[in-house]
Inverse folding.
């Protein structure tokens, strides 16, 4: 049996390749396999060329492999574009009756399966997706059990006929694949069976973040649809009843962030998510949250800019932007999860920090992390989630004899927070510079005191700083540096280099602001090579490290073509650097 | 029994002498006393402009936000805590210019909010530029040959969007204005009250005298029925020789907050947070591996 396998499904948008891909991902993770699945799609609903790829392994994986073992081609274009990626033992599954021109023979094994005809014979051309899934698992000898179970769960409620047709299509597709394998002997060199381990769980980056928000008690969510953050909006809406969340689609991102601020001011934990262009519109509101000291959480799912850029693809070019966006000076926290699991815990952490320091918190993800499906190594642990709201209690407010001051000057810079309507105390917030009560002022003394109060919070945030994590040998001479979504691919490249005897470790940032300067300086000084890996053109983290620690990061591996790094590329490039 | 003094904030008003805003402040205090609404139950959300300063001069909870952005803040605060009486104060540039998109969509949502627009047909805080409601021909330093654009008609816009309460007041008619504000607050649903007010500093055309010669009460027209959207729209187009005041349009309908299941359990900030429900999702996921199913 194989230990690892990579499958690509290619076709036009609207052909059902995402359905085929997601169902296959499901069947393998149900069978205990680790799955990593990602999409490469164009900004269109029909046509074009799109890819759903998945890597399956019996050990943990967090990135895509460059190897292509099985290609499921739903159109001729897929054969043309991906044929060069195949190796000697690769298998290509296609419908030879539908895709007339057979691909050039040679290195890969071509298996033509009449998916369309079988689907029609079973009653409906739409069943071709079910046939394709069944045929693929049929080639591996994976059994039909999980697929049948899946079809029953999904189509069971749609009536007997639909379910029966699907089961029949699955059986025919599976048998056809088996027949081809028997007829041609070693037609498919890949064998996969369900493992004798518990089923695995698949989670995307966006789902990890959304679940973190739900666990943290996010009660208000508002957003304007924008790739790659739209499905956080969709996810929150789908769970709104279960968790008692108010979800509102805003008229624009300006409204979205102002709504989040209004909801938070009135006492609800609140979040919005967007991408760079929408975040542009939110920067005015971000500043408002800073000035009024209203806790909010913003998810910024990066995609390649400037302007509309490559709407459905990935980039990490908004690190500096997230840190510096908005007019005026105010403290903020910027977090950058590397996996859906980190996204879950960091989002819950974001809500606590937002309320502790009464600041905006930005969660920096990107299309690659947002859309990719990762296998959870262990179930999400709710014991690790605490909910600390740092609000004045009803009791404290009823005992308060003085008039409540929303912006009271304190040694920490944090003013005790009350909610309007909670008690007889009035809560007054102002975007103008204000006195302790929240009333407009113009005088320099009050202004200076309030500026100092707000900025003091940033110093206090030091105590909660999440330093970057080191992976691999602590004393390694060569250090790979990365942040956010490159965690998985960098980790695998580092592990492979290490296995080949290279003296290399990895430093990964999940908190990028306030910058953990002291910890980074301590970790990075006295290394031979610092190699920064970033999905952007200018090396923003490398320059930030220089700015904050004085240490020069001389080696930068940058990629701004809209695609994520591959393990192979990083492996080879880092090897060249460290020799 | 709440007296008028309960609503005095003690903060000195930073408006020009003779500003129409003083009238709005007086009328609103009168309405609040009559409604006996406790200051801690009221949330005023304002934008930026002369109207934006309003809540500093009236004792209550307030959020003085950004220019044009009062409505989204107010909407979400109302959703987070429907027990609050939420009143928005913004100006004509604020609500009809910078925040025009928010006005359109907040009307569509119909939250139980009273939106009061201080309409002096000119930009005050930035010193005298034309506003979206300035009449054609109105001369300013930016529009030296007079405004060439059509003025925005807020009442016609709101009525066309089936806004559930649409009214126009005038600061020269305080008793009537207080009644309108009271009716707007009592109305369950989104109430837009456009208030005509002279700007003694920057608008030398639409003066008290100019208005006194033109305004009349809609009630004088016995035929008029505020429940008829077409008639209301027709009335909203009347401007010039005669300017109607009063409730133009009234369409009671379910509010946004009444239609949201999550709010049945009370204000969001009082609701218990139940992280353990994530375990249910984890269980669903391990039964199906991913949420695609």
């Amino acid at each position: 049996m194989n230990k690892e396998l990579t499958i690509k499904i290619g076709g036009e948008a609207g052909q059902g390749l995402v359905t085929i891909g997601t169902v296959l991902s499901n069947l393998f993770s149900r069978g205990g396999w680790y799955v990593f699945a990602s999409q490469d799609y164009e900004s269109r609903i029909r046509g074009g060329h799109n890819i759903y790829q998945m890597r399956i392994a019996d050990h943990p994986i967090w990135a895509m492999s460059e190897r292509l073992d099985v290609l499921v081609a739903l159109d001729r274009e897929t054969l043309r574009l991906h044929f060069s990626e195949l190796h000697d033992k690769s298998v290509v599954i296609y419908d030879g009756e539908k895709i007339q021109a057979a691909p050039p023979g040679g290195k890969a094994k071509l298996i033509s399966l009449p998916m369309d005809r079988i689907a029609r014979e079973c009653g409906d051309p739409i069943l071709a997706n079910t046939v394709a899934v069944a045929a693929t698992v049929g080639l591996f000898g994976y059994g039909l059990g999980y697929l049948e179970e899946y079809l029953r769960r999904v189509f069971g409620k749609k009536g007997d006929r639909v379910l029966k047709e699907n089961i029949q299509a699955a059986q025919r597709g599976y048998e056809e694949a088996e027949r081809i394998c028997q007829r041609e002997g070693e037609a498919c060199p890949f064998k996969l069976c369900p493992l004798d381990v518990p089923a695995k769980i698949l989670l995307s980056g966006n789902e990890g973040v959304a679940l973190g928000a739900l666990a943290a008690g996010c009660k208000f969510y508002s957003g304007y649809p924008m790739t790659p953050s739209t499905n956080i909006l969709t996810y929150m809406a789908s769970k709104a009843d279960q968790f008692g969340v108010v979800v509102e689609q805003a008229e624009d991102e300006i409204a979205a962030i102002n709504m989040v601020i209004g909801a938070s001011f009135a006492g609800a934990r609140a979040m919005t998510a967007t991408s760079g262009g929408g975040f542009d519109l939110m920067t005015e509101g971000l500043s408002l949250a800073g000035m009024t000291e209203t806790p909010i959480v913003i998810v910024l799912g990066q995609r390649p800019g400037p302007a509309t850029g490559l709407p459905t693809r990935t980039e990490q070019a908004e690190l500096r932007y997230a840190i510096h966006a908005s007019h005026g000076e105010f403290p903020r926290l910027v977090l950058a999860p590397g996996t859906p699991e980190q996204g879950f815990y960091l989002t819950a952490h974001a809500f606590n920090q937002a309320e502790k320091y009464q600041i905006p918190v930005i969660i920096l993800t990107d299309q690659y992390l947002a859309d990719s499906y990762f296998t959870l190594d262990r179930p999400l642990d709710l014991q690790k989630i605490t909910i600390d709201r740092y609000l004045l209690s009803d009791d404290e407010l009823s005992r308060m004899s003085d008039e409540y001051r929303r912006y009271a000057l304190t040694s920490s810079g944090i003013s005790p927070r009350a909610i309007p309507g909670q008690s007889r105390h009035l809560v007054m917030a102002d975007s103008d510079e204000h006195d302790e009560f929240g009333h407009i002022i113009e005088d320099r003394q009050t202004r200076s005191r309030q500026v100092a109060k707000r900025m003091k919070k940033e110093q206090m945030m030091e105590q909660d700083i999440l330093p970057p994590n080191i992976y691999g040998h602590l004393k390694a001479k060569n250090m790979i540096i990365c942040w956010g979504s490159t965690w998985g691919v960098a980790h695998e490249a580092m592990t492979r280099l290490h296995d080949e005897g290279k003296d290399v470790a990895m430093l990964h940032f999940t908190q990028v602001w306030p910058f953990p300067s002291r910890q980074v300086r301590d970790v990075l000084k006295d290394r031979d090579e610092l190699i920064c890996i970033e999905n952007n053109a200018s090396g923003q983290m490398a320059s930030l490290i220089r700015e904050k620690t004085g240490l020069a990061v001389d080696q930068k591996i940058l990629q701004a073509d809209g695609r994520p790094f591959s393990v192979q590329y990083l492996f080879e490039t880092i090897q060249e650097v460290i020799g | 029994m709440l007296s008028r003094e309960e609503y005095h904030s003690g903060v000195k008003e930073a408006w020009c002498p003779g500003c129409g805003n003083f009238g709005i402040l007086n009328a609103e205090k009168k309405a609040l006393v009559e409604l006996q609404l406790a200051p801690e139950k009221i949330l005023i959300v304002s934008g930026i402009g002369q109207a934006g300063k309003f809540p500093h001069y009236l004792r209550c909870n307030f959020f003085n936000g950004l220019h044009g952005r009062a409505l989204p803040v107010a909407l979400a605060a109302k959703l987070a805590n429907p027990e609050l009486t939420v009143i928005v104060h913004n100006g004509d540039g604020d609500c009809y210019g910078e925040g025009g998109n928010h006005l359109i969509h907040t009307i569509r949502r119909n939250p139980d909010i009273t939106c009061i627009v201080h309409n002096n047909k000119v930009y005050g805080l930035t010193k005298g530029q034309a506003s979206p409601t300035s009449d054609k021909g109105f001369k300013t330093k930016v529009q030296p040959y007079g405004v060439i654009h059509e003025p925005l008609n807020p009442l016609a816009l709101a009525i066309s969007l089936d806004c559930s309460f649409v009214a126009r007041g005038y600061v020269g008619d305080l008793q009537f204005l207080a009644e309108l504000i009271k009716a707007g607050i009592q109305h369950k649903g989104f109430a837009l009250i456009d208030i005509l007010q002279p700007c003694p500093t920057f608008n030398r055309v639409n003066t008290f005298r100019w208005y006194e010669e033109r305004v009349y009460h809609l009630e004088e027209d016995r035929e008029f029925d505020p429940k008829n959207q077409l008639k209301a729209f027709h009335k909203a187009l009347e401007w010039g020789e005669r300017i109607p005041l009063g409730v133009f349009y009234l369409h009671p309908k379910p509010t946004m907050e009444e239609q949201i299941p999550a709010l049945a359990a009370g204000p969001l900030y009082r609701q218990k947070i139940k992280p353990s429900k994530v375990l249910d999702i984890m269980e669903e996921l391990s039964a199906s591996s991913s949420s695609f199913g």
